[in-house]
Design goal:
Two copies of one chain form a homodimer. The first copy, chain A, is built from ten helices and no strands. Chain A folds into two domains: 8-54, Arc Repressor Mutant, subunit A (Orthogonal Bundle); 58-185, Tetracycline Repressor, domain 2 (Orthogonal Bundle), CATH 1.10.357. The mean pLDDT of chain A is 95. The first copy, chain A, is mainly α and 188 residues long. In chain A, helix 2 packs across helix 3, helix 5 packs parallel to helix 9 (142-163) and helix 5 packs antiparallel against helix 10. The structure holds a DNA duplex (30 and 30 nucleotides).
DNA sequence: ACGTTGATTGCAGAATCTGTAATCACTACT
DNA sequence: AGTAGTGATTACAGATTCTGCAATCAACGT
């Protein structure tokens, strides 16, 4: 570890969220983010592949964890239940960061360029889930379709979780969304 | 119409596909595309919002047509059938462009940056379908979930259509994919 | 002939992102 | 203490993407 004050990535993320909120995403330069964090533009790119990535910290690790959790779920569970338990397993982490998640969502909603990245991440999550489901023995096209609806249900649950005035847990909304999914699927 | 040779966008697209295939997406500059098309870099940006968009011609119109077709489908049809008929309606257009679609797919598969844009387009299609389904009276979350699985089924059908050695029509693969969807949904 | 229209072009410039090498602060070893 | 090694940060140059603005060009109508 160097002598520089730790938490470099966190400071860059914090600075980025502040500036994006103040002036908007396009009107903020990477150099400005770095300066507010007490660093240089080049250092920013040492930590994030591009300007958008600063708003998706730990996303790749999250995807990897979901993949492993789906793979490791009890073999007796149905594919959909395996995904639900995988989602629910780490949902506390989000419950403790509701406010930060809300600010992040406002930024994503305000800038199409950021939503594009979010959608790419969602698609990557779907592919990872499909891969894990196949590892459980599920065959295509069931794996692909199940993964797709799972991601859709997750997004639905996340949206309701953020909009919920009663502050229900993400786990609660996940279970509700998957219940809705079962109900809707019966109409197909 | 100006005096310049027509088909400017088509020429730019053709040049872009050629160069992307020859040298790869990243190693091709917009200036090179424009030069091969007999135009200038600035003209490229008069026709396409950014470098990626050149590979997604008419995508916005396609989405708009699907939205209208879903909205206009017979009210007696189930939501899923409405989407299927909307997809099938214009599928001949793709059947006549199989080879071009194949080259395009190879490019998308080879470059993550392009897949990201494709995923954004798919998400936009899903939102448009969800909107159309709500206009048909379907309520959330059914509209959102149905739209998501529809897009997934469409992608599945498109993938099989391109991989099919027997050259079945896209319409055939669409019906098969939606049939798989019905089957899979029963296991949820 | 003349003005209008729409597409194309030239040019300047900001911003993103990369490659390369140097610098810095700390650690470990002698 | 002194010295080499390590990893993070920095400086700098440069290619590329994308935008704004004004000028040019070729048709078309009157």
């Amino acid at each position: 570890m160097g002598r520089w004050p730790g938490g470099t990535q966190e400071r860059l993320q914090e600075a980025a969220i502040e500036l994006f909120t103040e002036r908007g995403y396009e009107r903020t330069t990477v150099a400005e983010i770095a300066t507010r964090a007490g660093l240089t533009e080049r250092t920013f790119y040492n930590h994030f592949a591009d300007k958008r990535e600063v708003l998706f910290p730990g996303q790749d690790r999250f995807i990897a964890e979901i993949r492993e959790a789906v793979t490791a779920a009890p073999p007796k569970q149905s594919p959909l239940d395996a995904v639900l338990t995988a989602f629910t397993a780490g949902s506390n982490w989000f419950d403790q960061r509701r406010k930060a998640a809300q600010r992040r969502r406002n930024l994503l909603d305000a800038h199409a360029e950021l939503r594009e990245r979010e959608r790419a991440k969602a698609a990557a999550l779907g592919e990872a889930i499909a891969c894990a489901l196949r590892a459980r023995g599920l065959s295509d096209p069931a794996a692909t379709l199940t993964a797709a609806v799972s991601v859709a249900a997750h997004q639905l649950a996340a949206a309701r979780w953020l909009a919920d005035p009663r502050r229900g847990t993400l786990g609660h909304h996940l279970r509700a969304a998957f219940e809705d999914l079962h109900h809707t699927a019966r109409t197909w």
